[in-house]
Amino acid sequence: MKITKQQLKEIIKEELEAVMAEEEKKDDDFLGDVKSTGEWTDYTIAQLQKKKDTLMKKETRTADEVTTVRQLNFAINAKQGDYKKKD
């Protein structure tokens, strides 16, 4: 069975549309997969910022401290509402 160029174009177009729709769905559910660890939930934004500032004042930071700064950044942004789902 031979496939014409037009038929091949249609098949490719349909496959691309299906893949793009699937990828878009994954993007929409990105934040839905994030589980809260609760490590920073009991702190206010000001307290988190103070902890971050303390670490940032150091000349050099260990790998654990760098990780903590990143976690604090994420926690601050989350508490400010930067990661809420957009409808």
Polypeptide structure, described:
The protein folds into two domains: 1-33; 35-87, no CATH class. Helices cover 61% and strands 0% of the residues. It is built from three helices and no strands. It has helices spanning 5-28, 45-56, 63-79. The radius of gyration is 23 Å and the shape is elongated. The N and C termini lie far apart (47 Å). The model has no long low-confidence stretch (mean pLDDT 84).
Topology:
Elements: H1 5-28, H2 45-56, H3 63-79
Helix pairs in contact: 2-3
Mean pLDDT across every amino acid position: 84
Main beta sheet, described?
none
Task: Classify the secondary structure makeup into a structural class.
Answer: mainly alpha
Please state the CA-atom Rg, rounded to the nearest Å.
Answer: 23 Å
- Helicity range of the residues? 55-70%
Number of domains: 2
**Could you give the order of the helices and strands?**
HHH
Q: So what's the overall shape?
A: elongated
Termini, distance in Å? 47 Å
User: Beta fraction of the residues?
Assistant: under 5%
Tell me the total number of β-strands.
0
> Which regions contain 5 or more consecutive residues with pLDDT less than 50?
none
